[in-house]
Amino acid sequence: MEIKAKQVVFRTNSDTIESKRLNCGIALYDKYTEDLRCVICGCCGGIFEPKDITSIRNLEWVPLEDEIMGE
Fold first, then answer.
1. Contacts 24+ apart (CB under 8 A), 21-26
2. Does the chain have fewer CB atoms within 10 Å around its N or its C terminus?
3. Tens of pLDDT, residues 12-69
């Protein structure tokens, strides 16, 4: 299986609309079927399975190299 990555904003089952909590991360999709495989949380690096996601919105890709390297 080949994977493609997209930067996303998402909500999990434990987030409520009332709390207005949004999470950011990287979603991994099957390249051919577009099925969501998992989301890597941008805050903690945790892995969320598709069953844990209640909503997701793809974003334009923003380079992350400087943030990862701490520059």
1. none
2. C
3. 988 666 667 789 999 999 999 999 999 999 989 999 999 999 999 999 999 989 888 9
d(CA 26, CA 39): 6
Q: Which tokens go with 40?
A: 């890597």
Longest dimension (CA), the chain: 38
Tokens of 25: 């991360």
SS3 state of residue 50: helix
Q: How far is residue 8's CA from residue 47's CA, in Å, rounded to a whole number?
A: 13
**Burial readout 34-67 (b: 16 or more C-beta within 10 A, e: otherwise):** eebebbeebeeeeebeeeebeebeeeeeeeeeee
